[in-house]
């Protein structure tokens, strides 16, 4: 299944169609046979990724305990532990990033906490580059050197190389 294609179709679906789809998905996810198949793939100490909807990205973790309906994991980077359903785990190594069809800006689904984004500040027409701190329903919170900025998704753009270097101009005087 191509998640990108499904995402593009979901962008045009009505709210009722999305609700019905959500109900159908919930029924499939709660199927005991599916849970048992996922549980059989897990082992203690196994390194896996889970998708964190709050941060909108995959997080590397380690399996600590396999329960009847959930798995206990510890995030590698932060050391935080969680219990979660088996289906949160990306056991098949599926690509989690999505691209929007939007002509300008980005969609919330394309952005993850910690991403580097840019936007043009309207008050002085200055390009700004910062780090994503929070994903709100209509705006993304971006951390800049001068504070936090709430920017509409339609005004942000991805930064491919975020390593800026401070430079000084050196003048050379030549005696004649």
Topology record:
Elements: H1 3-10, H2 15-29, H3 32-41, E1 47-52, E2 57-66, E3 70-75, E4 81-85, E5 116-121, E6 126-135, E7 139-144, E8 147-152, E9 156-158
Antiparallel strand pairs: 1-2, 2-3, 3-4, 5-6, 5-9, 6-7, 7-8
Taking pLDDT < 50 over at least 5 consecutive residues as the criterion, the unreliable ranges are: 164-176
Radius of gyration: 22 Å
Major β-sheet profile: 5 strands, antiparallel
Spatially, the strands of the biggest sheet line up as 8-7-6-5-9
Task: Please report the first level of CATH classification, the CATH class of the largest domain.
Answer: Mainly Beta
Extended strand count: 9
- Please trace the helix and strand order, writing H or E for each element: HHHEEEEEEEEE
Helix/strand-derived category reads alpha+beta
**Strand content range:** 25-35%
Query: What spatial form do the alpha-carbon principal axes imply?
Result: globular
Whole-number average pLDDT?
84
Helix content estimate = 10-25%
**Number of helical segments?**
3
CATH topology of the largest domain: SH3 type barrels
What would a concise description of this structure say?
By secondary structure, the protein is α+β, with helices and mostly antiparallel strands. Helix content is 19%, strand content 33%.
Characterization of this structure:
The strands form two sheets. Strands 8-7-6-5-9 form a five-stranded antiparallel β-sheet, with no helix packed on it. The chain starts with a helix and ends in an 18-residue tail after the last strand. It has two domains: 75 residues, SH3 type barrels (Roll); 51 residues, SH3 type barrels (Roll). The chain has three helices and nine strands; from the N terminus they run H-H-H-E-E-E-E-E-E-E-E-E. With 176 residues, the chain is of the alpha+beta class. The chain is globular, with a radius of gyration of 22 Å.
